[in-house]
Structures are given as structure tokens and as C-alpha cells.
């Protein structure tokens, strides 16, 4: 008897700069979930949907471009969230836009008593 374990390789890239890669053991040929979760899950849902998950905090912040790409499937998750698609659910303090911040000029305090 020979036992072989396959691996599914996953990666996520943030802002085209930071990439995190992981692998999970098992035999995979398709995504078996009918819903994509963005930002996290309500605490009551987490135990049901991802019982083995160690992550307990939801995402806080803004998202500009979130895509799911696999083979010939390309889903724009921001558009799906805004149109309230049944394919996508989100939870947490997620904003589907990011404010552009202008760089401020540096200032110097020349004495301990100086203030704005």
C-alpha cells in the first residue's frame, strides 16, 4: 500500500509588493465553496465555515483591487461586493475604496515649548 499526499499551493499578493505563500496537504481539483468571504467572518459563522482556522481577527482597512483568478475564471470581488452578489460575503470594517493621502511637509520643533 502506498500513500501519497498532494499539496495545493496558495499565494496572496498585496499592493503588488507583499506576497505570502502557503501550502495545504490534500488532493484538490476544484474550489468546493459556493461563497467567497472577504474581510473575515462573523464569529458565529467562523466555527461552522472554517472550524480548523486559527485566525480569529477580521480585516480592518481599505481594499482597492481584489481578484480571484484560477485557470479561466477571473472574478472582480470588489464589483461583486458592491452589487451584493450572492457569491460573495464580507464582514469586518472593510471599505471598498482607499483615500489617497498627500505627503505632508516635515516640521521641526526647535524648543521644548514649541507647539502648533
Automatic annotation (TrEMBL):
InterPro entries: ConA-like_dom_sf, Laminin_G, Neurexin-related_CASP. Residues 1-98 form the Laminin G domain. This is Laminin G domain-containing protein. The lineage of its organism: Eukaryota, Metazoa, Ecdysozoa, Arthropoda, Chelicerata.
Amino acid at each position: 500500500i502506498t500513500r501519497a499526499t498532494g499539496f495545493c499551493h496558495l499565494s496572496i499578493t498585496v499592493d503588488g509588493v507583499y506576497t505570502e505563500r502557503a501550502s495545504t496537504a490534500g488532493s484538490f481539483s476544484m474550489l468546493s465553496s459556493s461563497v467567497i468571504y472577504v474581510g473575515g467572518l462573523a464569529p458565529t459563522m467562523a466555527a461552522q465555515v472554517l472550524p480548523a482556522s486559527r485566525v480569529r481577527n477580521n480585516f480592518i482597512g481599505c481594499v482597492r483591487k481584489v481578484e480571484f483568478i484560477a485557470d479561466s475564471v477571473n472574478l472582480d470581488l470588489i464589483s461583486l461586493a458592491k452589487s451584493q452578489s450572492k457569491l460573495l460575503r464580507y464582514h469586518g470594517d472593510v471599505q471598498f475604496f482607499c483615500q489617497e493621502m498627500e505627503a505632508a511637509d516635515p516640521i521641526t520643533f526647535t524648543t521644548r515649548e514649541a507647539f502648533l
